[in-house]
Amino acid sequence: MAQTTREMPVRADGWRPTDPVLEAIIKRCIADAEAGASRDGVREYMAGAMILIVLAVLMLLAGQSATVAILIPAALFAAGALYMISKAKPVPVQRAKALAPMGGPGRLPAGYLVHPGAWNAGMAEHVAFLPESQLQAAAGMCATFPGSVDDLLIFTGTIAAQFPQPKHHLTPDDVAHRTRDLVRVGLPVIREFNQKYPPPAPDAGGKKGKKKK
Q1: pTM assigned to the model
Q2: Membrane spanning segments where (predicted)?
Q3: Alpha-carbon dihedral sign for residues 105, 111, 113, 114
C-alpha cells in the first residue's frame, strides 16, 4: 500500500523559521522541478525535427522538387507529433526530489521541519517512516535544536529507543503522552548544549567595534 502524505506538524506556539535566503533557494528548487516536468518531450520533438530537416536536404540533393522535399518531411513530422501526443502521459512534478541539489530536505536546519515550503518540497516524504510521536516531539524541539533536520531525527530516535516499545497500536492520547515524554527528556539536553556552546553572534554590518584608548 502506498504511503499517504502526512500533514505537517504545527508547533503549539506557531513558530516557523524565517530565513529569506533559504526560502528563496527552496522556491527556486521547486520551480526548477516543475520546469523540468513541463519540458518533458521537448527534446524528442527537436530531435525528430532535425532528422526530418536532414531528410529534406537529402531529397533536394537527390533531385526531388522543393515541394516534395518539404511536404513529405512535414507530413512525417505531423504524423509523429500526433502519435506522441496520443501516447503522452502527464509527468508528475518530482517535488520529493526538489531539494536534491541542497543534499535533500534532511540537510536543512532543524527548524525547517515545520516550514510549509520545505514540507511541500520533499520533507513530507522524508519523514514518512517516522512514528507520529517522534515527529511531533521533533517539531516541539526543532526551534532550539542546533543541527540539521536529520540530526534532530536521530536525536529524537535515540531518546525514543530508551523508552519501552509499545506493544499495541497507540491511541491519540498515547501519542500525545509519549510525545511529552520525549520532549521532557530532550529539551533540557538541547538547552544545556546551547548554553555551553552558544552560536556566534551575528556581525552587525560587518564592522568591528573600535577599541577605546
Answers
A1: 0.68
A2: 45-62, 68-85
A3: negative
